[in-house]
Amino acid sequence: MPARVVVGAQWGDEGKGKITDILAESADVVVRYQGGSNAGHTVVVGSNSFKLHLIPSGILHESTLCVMASGTIIDPICLADEMIGLRERDITCDNVRISENAHVIMPYHRLLDGLQEESRGAGSIGTTRRGIGPTYTDKTRRMPRSIRMVDLLDQGVLRDAVAAQLAQKNVIFQEMYGHAPLSVDEVIEEISGALPIVTPYVTDARAIIRGCLSRDEQVVLEGAQGTFLDLDYGTYPFVTSSHPVSGGACLGTGVAPTEIGEVIAVVKAYTTRVGAGAFVTELEDATGENLRELGAEYGTTTGRPRRCGWLDGVALRTSAELNGATGLAVTKLDVLDELETIQIATAYDIGGERVDRMPENLDHMEDARPVYEEMQGWQQPLGECKKVADLPAQARAYLDRMTELADTAIWAVSVGPEREQTVAF
Ligand code: GDP
Description:
It is a single chain. A hairpin with a 2-residue loop joins strand 3 and strand 4 (48-52). The chain is built from twelve helices and 20 strands. The radius of gyration is 21 Å and the shape is globular. It is of the alpha/beta class. 32% of the residues lie in helices and 21% in strands. It has a ten-stranded mixed sheet with strand order 9-7-5-2-10-1-11-15-19-20, with helices on both faces. Strands 14, 16, 17 and 18 form a four-stranded mixed sheet that branches. The chain folds into three domains: 3-100 and 201-263, Adenylosuccinate Synthetase, Chain A, domain 1 (3-Layer(aba) Sandwich), CATH 3.40.440.10; 103-196, Adenylosuccinate Synthetase, subunit A, domain 2 (Orthogonal Bundle); 267-424, Adenylosuccinate Synthetase, Chain A, domain 3, CATH 3.90.170. It binds guanosine-5'-diphosphate. Guanosine-5'-diphosphate binds at residues 8, 12-18, 40-42, 44, 300, 331-332, 334-335, 414-417.
């Protein structure tokens, strides 16, 4: 059976966690393909809310393997904390698997991320300060070689690798930031408590995924962040250091493009983004504030208020193309319940020219003005809708417009955080 990809179609926080959790019920394996503990997925089951940062959102299904593939980066301390927190809530985590090749976020990466971000002042790119950028930088820089999960299994290899890394990092800490150097012992001491918790799960992740594919089992590849935070296709430099787009699923897991059958693009019924960068449909008024409150738009990882605005149909169309979306999972439609009218940007006006795709040079996004189309709100609660026929005509019209703009059919609509609050199409 070909693999399914779940990808964020916007700037992250689209509700991928909920959609992945639903897919995980029938999946044999859920694989995170990129990013690290900068992600924050929330899965709600009854009165329980689970906040996941690194562990795939299939973890609540005990019989589904949850793999962190080679494209992810692992902070052993965060992962151990996450596993301990889940175990306290009776989730065993015995179905977790971690790729030997996933690179490790070390304490010096977190320190460097914080120092860099602080020094940028007003020019901050809004990182989560969790060491993501510096770790991916070390991975691509190659020498001294970055530490991978497999290196944590051998104390001698680990010690030598930390020493080689610190020889460079300490120069930066001292000369650029006036920060005291770190010692090999203190770095190893800091991660040592986490090692016995996470290392038993380090394995050949690609063999697991390959085995599932060859047995015709269901494989779900889960992205973190979102399309426009992609290092290549996002609003550079306000992007993440990896590839959330569906193509990143192949790179990050070793699954070939021809083995992917479906790409489910998760899109919020409006737009949010965290941190700096262009945002054409942003609402810096009471309507934006209202969306933030109704949608509880505060970061799972950082608690930062998210910037809010209308649905950007230009971004949606571009995203559907970039990801090869086969279906849209529209989330948080219920957040728009009370609105009398709703705007959708169907084009941008850039210097008097009307464009319907995001420009390749995303610097031009700063000059783009939204061309809006107004739609009628439904002004009734959607939370109880179970099937398409339960959705009011105005809501269906709004979804139809999304389908037209994205040239992609709706796969499902989410009308609340609970699993049951999902309408299959
Ligand atoms: P992710 O990182 O893409 O998984 O998204 P987040 O977890 O950061 O944000 C999604 C938030 O919205 C979570 O708190 C979910 O419980 C919640 N959520 C998901 N789908 C819906 C929905 O359809 N309606 C409402 N009101 N909340 C939702």
